[in-house]
């Protein structure tokens, strides 16, 4: 095999590997149903001020784009016309690309559950799995929400672990800024 064919073969395998690591776990409707199985949902667009967006970025330890993050889509879960929770979708930057996830929040402001919709993480793939995500259940803004403090990171996937932790912290700060807590 000549050198050009070897380079082409390596390129093709590299591209296939990247596709193989794109772990699309579920669609948004599937995630909503998994998070609140008996609920019906109402989607509302909420608006944050520039100052609120900047504050959320500072509190979560993430860079924010004020212009694009002023509007937040909030899925409100209802059972028998009673609010049983909220779902906010977020995208955070892992080591290998974006991690798109949804956080279900109880009316009291605690995390009910976190599910990953899509991820390109390689070594960080375990951050998309329940054994990592379940650490967020019950957490509120009163918790530290920091890797090595109250969240156990994934060995060899520190960047991905921190990205998810900061992302969930950001969602809780959005929830608080929108004053959704009952």
Structure report:
With 182 residues, this protein is an alpha+beta fold. The protein has one domain (23-177). Helices cover 36% and strands 25% of the residues. It has a five-stranded antiparallel beta sheet, sandwiched between helices. Strand 4 (98-105) and strand 5 form a beta hairpin. Helix 3 (50-60) packs antiparallel against helix 6 (158-177). The model is unreliable at 4-23 (pLDDT under 50).
Overall structural domain count? 1
* Percent of residues in β-strands: 25-35%
The SSE string, one letter per element, is HHEHHEEEEHH
Overall, the morphology is: globular
What number is the mean pLDDT? 86
How many separate helices? 6
Radius of gyration: 18 Å
**Helical residue percent?**
25-40%
- What ranges have pLDDT less than 50 throughout 5 or more consecutive residues? 4-23
State the distance separating the first and last CA atoms.
67 Å
The secondary-structure class comes to: alpha+beta
Oligomer: single chain
- The side-by-side strand order for the widest beta sheet comes to 1-2-3-4-5
What keywords describe this structure?
182 residues, globular, alpha+beta, five-stranded antiparallel beta sheet, single chain
């Amino acid at each position: 095999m000549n050198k050009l064919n070897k380079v082409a073969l390596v390129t093709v395998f590299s591209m296939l590997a990247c596709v193989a690591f794109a772990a699309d776990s579920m669609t948004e409707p599937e995630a909503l149903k998994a998070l609140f199985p008996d609920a019906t949902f109402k989607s509302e667009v909420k608006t944050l001020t520039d100052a609120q967006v900047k504050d959320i970025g500072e509190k979560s330890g993430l860079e924010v784009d004020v212009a694009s993050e002023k509007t937040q889509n909030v899925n409100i879960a209802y059972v028998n016309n009673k609010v049983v929770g909220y779902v906010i979708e977020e995208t955070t930057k892992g080591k290998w690309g974006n991690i798109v996830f949804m956080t279900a929040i109880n009316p009291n402001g605690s995390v009910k559950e976190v599910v990953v919709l899509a991820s390109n993480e390689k070594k960080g793939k375990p951050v998309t799995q329940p054994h990592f995500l379940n650490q967020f259940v019950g957490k509120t803004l009163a918790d530290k929400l920091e890797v090595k403090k109250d969240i156990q990171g994934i060995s060899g996937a520190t960047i991905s672990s921190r990205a998810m932790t900061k992302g969930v912290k950001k969602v809780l700060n959005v929830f608080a800024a929108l004053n959704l807590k009952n």
